[in-house]
Amino acid sequence: MREKLRLERGERVLAMAGTRGGSHVVVTRYALYVPDGEDGLVRVPWEKVLRASWNDEWLHVWADEAEYHVRLTEPGAVPSVVQERVTSTVVVSRYFTFGDDGGVRIVGRRATHDRPSPAPDGLLWSLVYDADLDSTDPGVKNKAEQLLLAVRREVGL
User: What is the reported pTM?
Assistant: First the structure.
């Protein structure tokens, strides 16, 4: 298992659980490792995780670029440590409605690794649109970007 993990300097394993497919989910200080379906693991840094939930033996994780749904055999501490790690990265989270069509959540996260953040203000910002909202609509995108600027001003960044 250790050979599949490409741990960064200072990264340590906090929890681990086996999956129904015979692989593992590994929780570290800096990232979540989930099965890639090809006998390897995908590294998902905590600042890229939008949300996570646990129910009926399934760990559900929504990240910036993908979703992961993994059935754990004996979850142990994995669900609670995942929740703690996700929560620990969030510095600011604000939700705005766009009428009856849904809304957008603006989230600023602190990077969990020891390297300097690539963001000038130290936070990585995400716009998480409701499923019913057309995030490709230029008007929606413009309004969301304006709200992002307002939130950044509000928190002094």
Answer: 0.77
